[in-house]
Design goal:
By secondary structure, the chain is an alpha+beta fold. It has two domains: 61 residues; 105 residues, Alpha-Beta Plaits (2-Layer Sandwich), CATH 3.30.70. It has six helices and five strands. Helix 4 crosses helix 5.
Length: 208
């Protein structure tokens, strides 16, 4: 019997068939194992990339939402501060404005006259009250009155100042300024009100 015949006989024997089957199984196992390893590496890389992407998105969301943290407390604080500002610095009425101006003119002392009040249109939550007033007095007293306006707890904003004359040490000043009233308080008076609140000057040494 030649070698080919012997191999063929061995191949189709029980032992040969077992050997061939084992070899095929080993090759299939190797191929499948290689495929599993390659797929696992690809899946791991995708998972790492996805995780990194999620972490980046999370950090971005944290940065975007950081200003909103404690927003309810900030809103409450803002409302409290606004209410305090309205209570302390917004006059309650035209008479409140006139009273404060009278106090400042007496303390300076200056003569305050020709005060004209005009409501500004479209003022919003608060109504702007514009005032055009005439002042007369010596220069230091005029400056004390202006400084008193700027430092007053009642909220005044000086818009313009212009000297209208000077005689014997007395300075005449035209002063334009603004304050604000709540709309309901502003509606209690006509839009234009003229008042001559000539305050009697205090003695020359007072308030200096």
């Amino acid at each position: 019997m030649n070698r080919f015949g012997a191999f063929r006989e061995w191949l189709f024997s029980a032992l040969g068939l077992h050997v061939v089957g084992f070899g095929l199984l080993a090759v299939a196992t190797l191929v499948l194992g290689t495929r599993v390893v390659l797929d696992w590496r690809a899946t791991s890389a995708s998972s790492v990339d996805a995780m990194a992407g999620r972490q980046s998105n999370l950090r971005l969301l944290e940065l975007q939402t950081a200003p909103l943290r404690g927003l309810d407390k900030k809103v409450d604080l803002s409302r409290t501060q606004i209410a305090e500002f309205y209570t302390k610095r917004i006059p309650p009425s035209y008479s409140g404005i006139a009273e404060r101006l009278g106090e400042l003119s007496t303390k300076a002392p200056v003569r305050l006259s020709r005060v004209q009040y005009t409501q500004a249109p479209g003022s919003g939550d608060l109504t702007e009250i514009r005032m055009d007033a005439g002042l007369s007095g010596d220069y230091p007293a005029i400056m004390r009155f202006v400084n008193g306006l700027e430092r007053s707890q009642t909220f005044f904003v000086i818009r313009a100042m212009a000297l209208t004359g000077q005689q014997s040490g007395t300075v005449n000043l035209r002063l334009q300024m603004s304050t604000w009233l709540r709309p309901a308080d502003a509606a209690a008076q006509p839009a234009d009100v003229s008042a001559d609140s000539a305050a009697t000057p205090a003695p020359a040494g007072e308030g200096r």
